[in-house]
Structures are given as structure tokens and as C-alpha cells.
Design brief:
Layout (H helix, E strand, L loop, with lengths): L1 H24 L7 H4 L18 H25 L6 H24 L8
Length: 117
């Protein structure tokens, strides 16, 4: 029992020494002003924070997130085709895709997809 305790303490001591060595060896010695400054979406962090930016970037990001989440919701629909009634699954899928197409039409109608100002 005592031998098991000594071996486990030895393993813990060796792993702690190895973690400490990796921390010391992985330190970067080259410090640069550009590398130490935060990256803020292409904006200069040393200038004014109240600079207006194009709303198109925000709208394209929102559109991407909406369609990305909806694709994540479509995958379980594919798997549940085998478990449910064919007619009810087709109604659910048709409604889901119809909502996607209505949203895409609305974005197109509001000129959110055009990049011109």
C-alpha cells in the first residue's frame, strides 16, 4: 500500500515538473508592438472607438448565422425520416423550407444582399 502511494506521488511530481518545463520553454521571447496589440476586426485599436462601419458587414453576418443555424436544424430532420410518418415529415420539411425561402425573399426584397450603398 505504501509502495502504491510512493509511485503515485512520484508520477504526480514528474508530471508537474514536465508541465512547468513546458511553460518555461514555450515562452515567446520576441515581443513586438503589433503582436501585443489586440486585433479588433481590422480597426486600429489606438484610434477612436466610435468610427462608423458599414452595416452590410453586420447584415451578411446575421444572414450567415441564420442559415448556419437552420442547416444545423435540418440534420436531425434527415435522421427522423425513418422514425415518423412520411406525410407528417413532408409537411414539417415543406414548412421549414418555406420559411427559409420567405426569409431569403424578404432579404432580397429589402436589398440586404446587394453590396452597393
Amino acid at each position: 500500500m505504501m509502495l502504491l502511494f510512493i509511485i503515485s506521488m512520484l508520477i504526480i511530481l514528474i508530471s508537474n515538473i514536465l508541465m512547468f518545463l513546458t511553460i518555461i520553454l514555450s515562452k515567446k521571447s520576441f515581443m513586438d508592438r503589433e503582436k501585443n496589440s489586440p486585433f479588433e476586426c481590422g480597426f486600429d485599436p489606438k484610434s477612436s472607438a466610435r468610427i462608423p462601419f458599414s452595416l452590410h458587414f453586420f447584415l451578411i453576418t446575421v444572414i450567415f448565422l441564420i442559415f448556419d443555424v437552420e442547416i444545423a436544424l435540418i440534420f436531425p430532420l434527415i435522421q427522423s425520416f425513418y422514425l415518423t410518418n412520411y406525410f407528417s415529415m413532408m409537411k414539417i420539411s415543406f414548412f421549414f423550407l418555406l420559411m427559409l425561402l420567405i426569409g431569403l425573399y424578404h432579404e432580397w426584397n429589402q436589398n440586404m444582399l446587394n453590396w452597393t450603398n
